[in-house]
Design brief:
Layout: E1 6-12, H1 18-29, E2 34-40, H2 49-57, E3 83-86, E4 104-107, H3 120-142, H4 151-163
Parallel strand pairs: 1-2, 1-3, 3-4
InterPro entries: Ptyr_pPase, Ptyr_pPase_sf
Protein name: Arsenate reductase ArsC
Domain Phosphotyrosine protein phosphatase I: 6-144
């Protein structure tokens, strides 16, 4: 199990910002231990341009980034998922998709930067803030001793990460 690469799916409604950012971050931070994917319950069909701008500024290759339906991960030949995280924002009354099956799941709500209003600078700041929150949570997650923690304890940790204030890094 020490050599196992864990498949992680980040779900959102539109798959144009938060879940794409999370996919990029996880594939960088968890390189070699995790393989991340993203999808949406109602995909926009294109990645938000500010998402791509931010990723490029952070030296990510954006060739992976495409808005796709979560149905893609239910088809034969799709990767077997170990973890599914929803990153939509319940506080904004946004509906989050529910993933059926056996992977471990948790809700890590993040405000939708694509819904930000204001100046261009304020809108870009919303994307940077979403990135920061996701990066903090993913960094905590990837540091967990997955091989030595039982499923119930792991579920508690996953849920706690979603409640993390993102300022203290504690889970």
């Amino acid at each position: 199990m020490a050599d196992k690469v864990f498949n992680v799916l980040f779900l959102c409604t539109g798959n144009s910002a938060r879940s794409i950012l999370a996919e990029a971050i996880m594939n960088r931070v968890g390189q070699g231990r995790f393989k991340a994917y993203s999808a949406g319950s109602q995909p926009k069909g294109e990645v938000h341009p500010y998402t791509l701008d931010l990723l490029r500024q952070m030296n990510f290759d954006t060739g992976f980034a495409r808005s796709k339906d979560w149905d893609e991960f239910t088809l034969p030949g799709a990767p077997e998922l170990d973890f599914v995280f929803t990153v939509c924002d319940n506080a904004a009354n946004e509906s989050c998709p529910v993933w059926p099956g056996q992977p471990m799941t948790a809700h890590w709500g993040v405000p939708d930067p694509a819904a930000a209003e204001g100046t261009e600078a304020e809108k870009h700041l919303a994307f940077s803030e979403a990135y920061r929150m996701l990066n903090a949570r993913i960094s905590i997650f990837t540091s967990l001793p997955l091989q030595s923690i039982d499923r119930l304890a792991l579920q508690k940790r996953l849920d706690a990460i979603g409640r993390t204030s993102d300022m203290d890094g504690a889970a």
